[in-house]
Amino acid sequence: MSTPHTTEKDTTSEDLPLQFARTRRFSLGVPKQFTVSPDGERVLFVRTADGRSPVSSLWLHENGAERILVDPLSLSGAGDDVPEAELIRRERARETSAGIVAYATDAAVRTVVFALSGALWIAGTDGSAPRALPTAGPAVDPRLSPDGTLVSYVTGGALHVVRADGTGERQLAAPERPEVTYGLADHASAESIHREASSWWSPDGGALLVVRADSAPVQRWYLSDPAHPTKAPRTMAYPAAGTANAEVSLHLVRVDGTRIPVRLPRSADLDTHPAGAWTDTAFEYIVEAGWDAVGAFATVQTRDQRTAYRLAIDPETGEAEVTIRQHDDAWLEFLPGATGLARSGLALGADLPTALDVRAVLGTVGRTVYFTASDEPTETHVWTYAPEEGYVRLTEEPGVHTAVLGGDTVVLDSRTLDGQTVTVLRDGKPAGRIAVLAEQPLVTPRPVFLVLGERELRTSLYLPSWHKEGSAKLPVVVHSYAGPGAQTVQRGNGWQHAVNQWFAEQGFAVLSIDGRGTPGRGVRWRKAVHGDQLTPVLEDQADAVRAAVERFWDLDGDRVGIRGWSFGGYLAAAAVLHRPDVFHAAVAGAAPTDLALYDTHWKERFLGHPDVLPQNYERCSLVAHAHKLTRPLLLVQGMADDNVVPAHMLRFSQALVAAGRLHSVLPLPGETHLVTKEGVADTLLRLNVEFLKKSLNA
Q1: In whole angstroms, what separates CA 481 from the centre of its chain?
Q2: Is 601 helix (H, G, I), strand (E, B) or coil?
Q3: How high is the pLDDT of residue 48?
Q4: At the fourth CATH level, which superfamily is domain 448-696?
Q5: Mean pLDDT of 576-597
Q6: What are the φ/ψ torsions at residue 287 (nearest 5 degrees)?
Q7: How far is residue 421's CA from residue 442's CA, in Å, rounded to a whole number?
Q8: Residue 527 contacts residue 327 (beta carbons within 8 Å)
């Protein structure tokens, strides 16, 4: 039987892997980072010029039409010399484009600031020409005061401020030693807590609430570039599980230079803190902070992540009053937007449908609360709640929907299997669209959504477009992420659908499976991996494969491969170690094989402290089980990855060699955790196919 490598849409010399790389996973041309003015008149966003341009511009939608507000290519002095702190910030945010990738506005969204190659720029939404502002050094993370008169920024770990007219540049907070920064996030806060900001302006523009991070206690790791032995290793402070975190604190920094430390609580009350095999009541994490109409606030979390205090901060004295205490026997989750909702005095009603899994609070308009939620795990919809109307679902088409609010304007961002649309609604009625310029994949995804097994596992199946049912058995490739914080089985367009379909066109049946631990199915489902991130996850993958093979004659259960990246890579390697009866070959990319090498906040959340609960790490880490390998395994690793560092791959490979287990290793010099480079990302997909074909006799 022939197995064509093209589909009816592949009419050019370019194949999908090359398109995938050139479009950076189809992310170029997609509008994002929407900001809606309080009067609802203006919408700011960033977007590249088309589906191939790697440079993002700042755009404005107004009066039903969009236009470029700032084109970075037109600014003098704009180059590629991006400060290291900004490069680190982009890596944590998984930013794939260049140019203007972040910005900040005043309260009225009349003025905007951004950093470009270390230079600080300011522009108006009235179309006036952007102006460069003087800085003391390369600027990172600029923030504009609510009245638009002052701009804060960070350079060299110090917090500075300059007037919007370019005068009065001065330093507000200087690091006491090289390990200290003001206004920048430490590794755990940026990578695992996902706290994007570390400084916030007061409503009157007279002060900032600022995070001070001291990384001196954190162990140092050294990442070298083996392909360039003349380069010195990069030093980074990485808080691996069980080791010291950065010391974080909050300070009220006034524009006159005076500073007041916020008196954060040091530890949780033992009499209310949940009991457990491992207990650490020290408040080591600042989960969120900021200002609103009520005042300054923050939320702090204990090292063991089972207690959090929401605090109201006195801006005159720095005293912090506990307003809410939260506890959980496993770990606390923080719903985006929930703090703002609580401080507004509004709340979701007690009659919330039991089948509804709330994903985020988007904001309020009057007494109406906007939020996103899933009543089916493969979909996310925009909902409203008002005491008079109750719960109303605003989006109907199956997909993944979200929104941004401002005044009576709602920017509705909808991803369905047919594509992505961004609609501007005024008073609930369409008032224009923001163009999505991403390229359409050269293959047409054809996912079939399934519910498999006794746990009703959400699964998507991709078959070759040329395959006739019942004509032949197809080898199976599982491509799942299956870890916390992400889903792959969704009824919205995404690069996974296109890549999975392309794999199918090469002669495979492809399965993607969301099991326990993934979002969208409620708290119990997400926390089913507490203490064991491997057994339930792998069990769900195996169960879904068996159920799919039983349902579809065309799937060959004797030839099953699995591939994945990051947690998905960990899953792939674990599958051939522990379940060779189901999985017969694996490609494991950026796999965290030694879980004690991953960061504190993320890994201790699920497995606890490695010194107190070593059995959790022993059970879930792969290095200790290397001797079990009996199936073909390809390990892929970006050698500049500072999230899942190369030591994971090297230690696992070393253990495999010591156990006499054959395996293959593909190092990617210069690549980080997010591999998008043309010539690498595309080649990697092709190598995946060739390895799996050879290993599965396909």
Answers
A1: 13
A2: helix
A3: 97
A4: Alpha/Beta hydrolase fold, catalytic domain (3.40.50.1820)
A5: 98
A6: -80, -40
A7: 19
A8: no
177 and 161 Cβ atoms separated by less than 8 Å: no
pLDDT higher than threshold 80 for residue 12 = no
Q: What is the CA radius of gyration of the chain?
A: 25
What would the mean pLDDT of 213-219 be, rounded to a whole number?
98
Q: What is the pLDDT of residues 190-204, one digit of tens each?
A: 999 999 899 999 999
Task: Reduce the DSSP state of residue 84 to 3 states and report it.
Answer: helix
Give 99-123 pLDDT, tens digit per residue: 999 999 999 999 999 999 999 999 9
| 37: nearest Cα among 62, 66, 64 | 62
For residue 681, the tally of other CB atoms under 10 A from its CB is 20
Question: At 647, phi and psi to the nearest 5?
Answer: -55, -30
Say what percent of the chain tops pLDDT 70. 98
Token pair belonging to 190: 């940026």
The residue to which tokens 């961004």 are assigned: 422
Structure tokens of 100? 């203007």
CATH of domain 32-174: 2.120.10.30
Alpha carbon distances (Å) from 455 to 474, 513, 578, 591:
26, 12, 21, 26
Phi-psi region of 242 (alpha: psi -120 to 50; beta: other; left: phi over 0): left
Per the CB < 8 A criterion, the answer to whether 301 and 283 are in contact is yes
pLDDT 10s digits, 335-376: 999 999 999 999 999 999 989 999 999 999 999 999 999 999
Give me the amino acid identity at 174.
Answer: A
pLDDT in tens, 511-568: 999 999 999 999 999 999 999 999 999 999 999 999 999 999 999 999 999 999 999 9
**What is the band of 2 on the pLDDT scale with cuts at 50, 70, 90?**
very low
pLDDT of residue 153: 98
224: number of CA atoms within 13 Å, CB side?
8
Cα 500 to Cα 688: distance, rounded to the nearest angstrom: 12
Structure confidence by residue, pLDDT tens digits, 372-406: 999 999 999 999 999 999 999 999 999 999 999 99
Tokens of 276: 């457990």
Beta carbons within 10 angstroms of residue 76's beta carbon = 6
Among all chains, which residue has been given the structure tokens 């179309």? 127
Neighbours of 260 (CB within 10 A): 18
Number of C-alpha atoms within 13 angstroms, CB side, residue 327?
13
Tokens 């203006």 correspond to 42
- Asked if residues 22 and 678 have their Cβ atoms less than 8 Å apart, the reply is yes
Taking a C-beta distance cutoff of 8 angstroms, is the pair 434, 66 a contact?
Answer: yes
Q: Which of 341, 344, 345, 284 is CA-nearest to residue 309? A: 284
pTM of the shown model: 0.95
105 token code pair:
């506005």
- Of the candidates 97, 93, 137, 101, the one whose C-alpha atom is nearest the C-alpha of residue 119 is 137
* Domain locations along the chain: 32-174, 198-334, 448-696
* Residues β-bridged to residue 667: 637
Q: Please provide residue 351's backbone torsions phi and psi, each rounded to the nearest 5 degrees.
A: -90, 30
Locus of tokens 């920017």: 411
DSSP H helix total and E strand total for the chain: 12, 40
3 pLDDT band (50/70/90 cuts)?
very low
* 165: exposed, middle or buried (Cβ count in 10 Å: 0-12, 13-18, 19+): exposed
